[in-house]
Amino acid sequence: MLTYWNNYPTIQNKLQTVCSLIEERLKVENPDIQDALIEMTQAGGKFLRPAFFFFFSDLGNPEKQDSDQLIKIAASLELLHMATLVHDDIIDDSPLRRGVSTIQSRFGKDIAVYTGDLLFTVFFDLIIETMNASEYMAVNALAMKQLLLGELNQMASRYNSKGSVENYLNNINGKTAELFSLACLEGAAFGQTSPEIATQASEIGRNIGMAFQIFDDILDYTADKKELKKPVLEDFVQGVYTLPLLLAKEAQPDVFSPYFEKGSQVTLAEAEEVMKLVIKHGGVKQAKKYAQRYTNDALESIDRLPKSDTRKALKKLTTQLLIRTY
Amino acid sequence: MLTYWNNYPTIQNKLQTVCSLIEERLKVENPDIQDALIEMTQAGGKFLRPAFFFFFSDLGNPEKQDSDQLIKIAASLELLHMATLVHDDIIDDSPLRRGVSTIQSRFGKDIAVYTGDLLFTVFFDLIIETMNASEYMAVNALAMKQLLLGELNQMASRYNSKGSVENYLNNINGKTAELFSLACLEGAAFGQTSPEIATQASEIGRNIGMAFQIFDDILDYTADKKELKKPVLEDFVQGVYTLPLLLAKEAQPDVFSPYFEKGSQVTLAEAEEVMKLVIKHGGVKQAKKYAQRYTNDALESIDRLPKSDTRKALKKLTTQLLIRTY
């Protein structure tokens, strides 16, 4: 999906190098697993996290930058993301990810557990190579922890009929926004911008990540299966209650409580009813307002960055991300 | 199980501190998961890896040591071990570990995946706090990778009727011996011994780890269920072919090939037949010779360490480990 970056040839070029580096680092003894990992990398998403990293590093002074270091850090961000995806797919029992069979559907859960773990170690290899001795080691470890705590809390609160908007926002802050924040922060820091820009970058990344995840959760209610390439409604059936539902439930508790009471006994047909009710009672509309608010916060902060072509591109990209249909 | 160290009060004392530190670091938002993790720590094994770490650090100069650092590194070793145990239990579908319900049997595989991941991050937190900027960061990342590759290769070669002794030794070198080697190496290094002793320590640890794992695999064939606290024979039914079987098969291929051909269709009754055949054809006896060889190598290297009470204790412990019945 690096075609997504056709209008940003410099970024696209760097992302291609990141992709090659990841493939190189995923060499393992077992050829099947290696192939599956490389296929996963190539079928990959948009490499959004490395891309944001490079946008922010572009705000710095190129003469002070170590381009090899930047490529490796960008790769570490994608690997951390991939590791959690491999583990996510175990939990969701997902047959497909980005149109390609998941590691767990090909090799079983057991191999997927260790494959995800292995990706974590490749992530650590890269950050040790590039930032050992710096405070960013601890920043990375903390980000990884927040990410996992977000996932863990989401899991632990499944089928929780008392799930709140606040709890949801907390969880996505950990599981998604943290890594976007890290990507932007590290881009600014290792791109040798200023400490002020690094702080702004971290905040911008967090807002983008929040908006991104909310938007993703909205898609479960609006996109059709073919377009999304993953089964819609799976979150609800699995007891993961996302923002549109939580907001609709807040507005009309009596309408939704019968469905919540069913817990894991809920049927797919009932899930479809819930989907329609969420839309009817404004859940999607309200959730879009949340996404919009985080996007606006991000855009306003971007406006406060030093004026440059990069700032312009960043603004365009951020706006574009929130009108995506896939 | 820290009672195992009753005859080594100084070590026991340090291990108690390690145990408390681990509990402190396992504070997570979800009280159920936190309780389960703390229970796992307390029900814990013998804390063998931290113990070997301390034995080797005791060979150094106490005046040059940072005792807080040593406790943290010892804890990191146990946490890395615990992380792989939590993920192992997912794969083995184990209901019990050390007599306590496993994370996966209590909370499901999904939570167990993230809980194991979380333990990896706590491991990284500790090594970043204690050895950031040192070459030992990369040593740890590599050890973790070898450990996972060992597990992954073992998984990927399940039900492989061509499984060889060499392949088995490779896998246990990664999945078990690597961490014992790291424990001894880090004990020597952070205990401020000499580079020569550190090299010896690493080798001793590796030999102890090899012997330890072989011995563990022998127990599947000899111990009774109650004593072991885990279902015997599970390895065979799950297609993990360990040393006693591989050696018996090498000696009598015709006897064993019918069972191997059944692959995952093998029944528990057939597994019991295999167990008897392995013993009958000398598999256990031959495997014990392998364990003995690694133990002897370890003991000979220990003899080359500087003469001290610690050396004496280390020798005693190593010998004792290989006559354990649990």
Question: How would you describe the overall organization of this protein?
Answer:
The structure is a homodimer of 326-residue chains. Chain A has one domain: Farnesyl Diphosphate Synthase, CATH 1.10.600. Chain A is 74% helix and 1% strand. Chain A contains 16 helices and 2 strands. In chain A, strands 1-2 form a two-stranded antiparallel ribbon. Chain A is globular. The model of chain A has no long low-confidence stretch (mean pLDDT 89). Chain A binds chain B through residues 28-30, 32-33, 87, 90-91, 107, 109-111, 113-118, 120-122, 124-125, 128-129, 132-133, 137-138, 141-142, 144-145, 148-149, 151-153, 155-156, and chain B through 28-30, 32-33, 87, 90-91, 107, 109-111, 113-118, 120-122, 124-125, 128-129, 132-133, 137-138, 141-142, 144-145, 148-149, 151-153, 155-156. Chains A, B: Its cofactor is Mg(2+). Chains A, B: Keywords: Magnesium, Metal-binding, Transferase. Chains A, B: Belongs to the FPP/GGPP synthase family.
